[in-house]
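Narrative of activities, Objective 1.

The group set out to show that a structural description can be obtained from nothing but a protein's sequence at a throughput compatible with the screening campaign. Below is one input-output pair from the validation batch, recorded exactly as produced.
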Amino acid sequence: MLRGSKLLLPLLTLLAFAGPARAASQDVSPPASEWRGYCSAYVAALDGKSEVSDLDVTYCLGMTKGLLNGLRIGAQIGALSFGSRLAVRYSLDADEVFKLFQQQDPARILGICSPPTLNAADYVRAVLAHLEKNPADRQRPIGEVFFEGLQATWPCN
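Output recorded for this entry:
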């Protein structure tokens, strides 16, 4: 029975996010306050201050890792798109331009230069600290606030 309940949690999490389709013009990113609630509970549990439900951990880590991967992949796609535009506009060798852009660190493209040894909890703590300093951001989409919090915490020189 324990194995079945562990398999059920990811499915329940997916169902929690599933809902009626939204119009294309609406932002589908939840507000930062929602992410903050789950992730504050997760950090409190890490610090030994409280118990945490599996759903809180699943939501917090799932959203956090999804946001991190989205930023990384988005930076790579953006760089390749920009490289393509440069190659066409200035009649450059497209293969050479793509090689140069693929060698770029996605984090530097984003302006987020965090240490390579960080784990998901470190990113959660950084964004939570950013939200504490900027409480008005809690109603903004978490995707935007997450990006800004990481840039503020680990800017590139």
